[in-house]
Amino acid sequence: MRTPRVMIGVPVLLSAVLLYACAVIRPEPRNIPREESRYDDADIKTELSSALLGMDPSRANGISVHCFNGRVFLTGEADKEFRAQALEAAGKIPGVAEVTPHWFPTGSGNASEDAAVTAAIEELPLFAGKVAGGRVAVDVRGGHVVLVGLAPAQTDIDNLVRQVKRVKNVKSVTSYLLPD
Predict the structure, then answer these.
(1) ∠ CA(92), CA(95), CA(97), 5° rounding?
(2) Which numeric CATH code is attached to 111-179?
(3) At 57, is the secondary structure helix, strand, or coil?
């Protein structure tokens, strides 16, 4: 069954307006006191992902959880209530030092276009070389790119951001990359 173009156009226009508003307003990272003992980032990610799925699987599926050196990054789409719940859940996980959210407006992405942008980014020489190995996560919604993780040096981060900005259909790049 085909959806009339008018019905598709209205949500796309609304998403564009909301996406612009989201790009202008960025929440600051929340510092959460870190306990003395070290926790494995994979364990933190698994525990938080499980907690979100336990709260509401349908809303949790719109959120990506990334963790590097005890820093948790939540990216994706969620309503305001679930965003607050996700932040609260992250703060309760042992070993979490900081939580940084980056929210996209719901319905702002196009799965096939965003997958193509993600694939193009992951094929960049610098991404595939120096900063590869699961140390950088890429989230794309509506052509807006969020980079999260660790890179060898600030120059690598700057070069990667510059390269990503040149990828076809990339509208903006937000980097939460940190030098390793």
Answers:
(1) 85
(2) 3.30.1340
(3) helix
Least confident of 14-28, 126-140, 156-170: 14-28
Bridge partners, residue 98, by sequence: 31, 71
Fold of 26-104: Histidine-containing Protein; Chain: A; (3.30.1340)
pTM exceeding 0.85: no
Residue 71, helix vs strand vs coil? strand
- Averaged over 13-25, what is the pLDDT? 40
Domain residue ranges of the chain, discontinuous segments joined by +: 26-104, 111-179
33 within 8 A of 93, measured Cβ to Cβ: no
Laid out side by side, the sheet with 172-179 consists of 136-141, 144-151, 172-179
| Nearby residues of 161 by Cβ (< 8 Å), 6 or more positions away | 147, 173, 175, 177
Per-residue pLDDT of 99-118, as tens digits, reads 999 998 878 778 899 999 99
Tokens of 138: 């890429």
d(CA 54, CA 48) in angstroms, rounded, equals 10
Q: Are 139 and 164 in contact (CB under 8 A)?
A: no
